[in-house]
Amino acid sequence: GVSEAEGDCNDDDAGVHPTAEDVVNGVDDDCDGLVDEGGARVDDDGDGFSEETGDCDDANPEANPAQEEIPENDVDDDCDGAIDEPVDDDRDGWTAASGDCDDTDGWANPGMEELCDGVDNDCDGVIDELCQEVIGQDTGVAKPGCGCATDRGPTSALWLAPVLGLLLRRRRSA
Predict the structure, then answer these.
(1) Distance of alpha carbon 92 from alpha carbon 114, whole angstroms
(2) 3-state per-residue secondary structure call for the chain
(3) Which of 47, 49, 66, 85 is most buried, taking the most CB atoms under 10 A from its CB?
(4) What pLDDT, on a 0 to 100 scale, did the predictor assign at position 143?
(5) pTM here?
(6) What distance in Å separates the CA atoms of residue 134 and residue 113, rounded to the nearest whole number?
(7) CA distances from 163 to 64, 87, 147, 151, 174 (A)
(8) Each residue of 115-167: pLDDT tens digit?
(9) pLDDT in tens, 20-67
């Protein structure tokens, strides 16, 4: 009942016309230029993912497996099956909700050992408690044979050279 002049894209097939329902069959049933829209293999929202490739809401281009979770928007933005789960900004496996005291620093979380670097690395509320054992608490002077970096500047990597030297020496002897 629809001619090509009225938008029928396949006048030889009576099931294909502008008011037909598009079904998953490899044919543009509704003559809108899209084949099988709404099917699991088709990226309906243009975000690069279909339902078959993990898109949990193919009508929303802001929800797909490549997105980061946005807290408190009631959407599963990253399509991991959880809505508004806590975000791990520094990607260290800990979130603020799970005890990370600085979620912008991967060297600070409850699973870290304390380092002498001016940061509460283990998130116990005490900064550089191990340094207090190395540096005399009463005098503030380092005990003989001990040292402690107080910042993350060039001196905090001084331990690296001796360790690399030992590894190279060990490798040469093997």
Answers:
(1) 15
(2) CCCHHHCCCCCCCCCCCCCCCCCCCCCCCCCCCCCCCCCCCCCCCCCCCCHHHCCCCCCCCCCCCCCCCCCCCCCCCCCCCCCCCCCCCCCCCCCHHHCCCCCCCCCCCCCCCCCCCCCCCCCCCCCCHHHHHHECCCCCCECCCCCCCCCCCHHHHCCHHHHHHHHHHHHHHC
(3) 49
(4) 47
(5) 0.40
(6) 15
(7) 44, 35, 16, 20, 17
(8) 888 899 999 999 988 776 555 555 555 444 445 544 454 444 556 666 666 67
(9) 988 878 888 889 887 777 777 788 888 999 998 999 998 999 999 999
Amino acid present at 148: C
Angstrom CA distances, 41 to 30, 61, 165, stand at 18, 15, 55
